[in-house]
User: Which sequence fits this backbone?
């Protein structure tokens, strides 16, 4: 009899302890939900206070829309944030979000977030662009690859680089926007009429403002054509196949390679479409003349000739020059 009484008293004491602890346990609070738009099946970061670190199962997150309620799976917990997973079968719309903490001994009151959880269709792929440069606003609608099924969201059009994203509407809700694609707006009234090149075969090329020092690096969009001894560099817009065209005269022969170690040599490349005679052409280093071609020496179009002899090339760096009657060309290292 006494033993049964002791057990009953112990259970009463434990129940009283749980109630006291529950009253003392503070309610958590939610200050922010990220991202602002969430798609079904995506992770959510919930920031706030009063959470329990490394004890995800103690937290109960509930979504409410009208009379419908849904539980969120909590993936991890820290003192100031929770990572949860939106159910994959959630309907689009705005949901109330509430949280409480409950363990075997402790529980808090239900706390509601001021911010709604906004469930929206997944973002589409970024826009595919057929043109990356426009020179007038009317060309914007022509930059996209044909049969693009999405709507487009633009930033306000400005000189230089601009962005555009895709979105669509499903069940009356606008989707999240895609990652942006980028294009340049380079109007004729603001940009120099020719490309500015850093070299004949450009590592980089620029569209330069007519007034001011601002330059826009468009080397990845610069095209080139070669015709005899001339190269043409340009960009394409929807209405202009050769916008900002810049022409460069080429020398028929260039020094394509320098070998400073013994045996010293330079390689001469005929980049023209015709054969070339090197007779009377002279080779110089940075100090003086090192060689003259006294006899006929034909280099066929597209072919190379290697001149091997003591050319006085400085191992630490030098400039070699080929001088012919109609042109000169050089290469340094």
Assistant:
């Amino acid at each position: 009899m006494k033993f049964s009484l002791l057990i009953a008293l112990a259970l009463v004491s434990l129940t009283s302890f749980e109630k006291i602890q529950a009253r003392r346990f503070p309610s958590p609070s939610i200050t922010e939900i990220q991202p602002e738009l969430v798609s079904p099946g995506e992770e959510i970061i919930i920031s706030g206070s009063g959470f329990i670190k490394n004890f995800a199962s103690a937290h109960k997150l509930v979504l409410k829309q009208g009379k419908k309620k849904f539980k969120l799976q909590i993936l991890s917990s820290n003192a100031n944030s929770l990572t949860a997973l939106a159910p994959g079968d959630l309907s689009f719309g705005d949901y109330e979000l509430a949280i409480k903490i409950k363990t075997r001994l402790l529980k808090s009151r239900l706390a509601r977030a001021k911010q709604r959880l906004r469930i929206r269709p997944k973002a589409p792929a970024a826009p595919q662009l057929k043109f990356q440069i426009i020179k007038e606003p009317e060309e914007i609608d022509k930059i996209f690859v044909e049969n693009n099924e999405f709507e487009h969201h633009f930033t306000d059009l400005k000189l230089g680089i601009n962005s555009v994203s895709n979105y669509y509407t499903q069940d009356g809700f606008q989707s999240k926007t895609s990652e942006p694609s980028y294009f340049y707006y380079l109007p004729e009234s603001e940009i120099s009429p020719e490309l500015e090149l850093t070299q004949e075969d450009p590592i980089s090329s620029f569209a330069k403002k007519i007034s001011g020092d601002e330059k826009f690096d468009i080397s990845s969009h610069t095209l080139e054509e070669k015709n005899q001894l001339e190269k043409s560099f340009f960009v394409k817009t929807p209405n202009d196949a050769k916008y900002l065209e810049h022409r460069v005269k080429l020398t028929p022969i260039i020094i394509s390679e320098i070998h400073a170690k013994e045996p010293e040599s330079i390689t001469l490349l005929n980049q023209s479409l015709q054969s070339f005679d090197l007779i009377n052409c002279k080779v110089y280093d940075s100090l003086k003349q090192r060689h003259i071609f006294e006899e006929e020496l034909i280099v066929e179009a597209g072919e190379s000739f290697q001149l091997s002899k003591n050319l006085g090339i400085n191992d630490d760096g030098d400039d070699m020059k080929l001088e012919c009657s109609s042109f000169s060309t050089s290469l340094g290292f």
Summary: The two ends are 104 Å apart (CA to CA). Residues 1-23 have pLDDT under 50 and may be disordered.
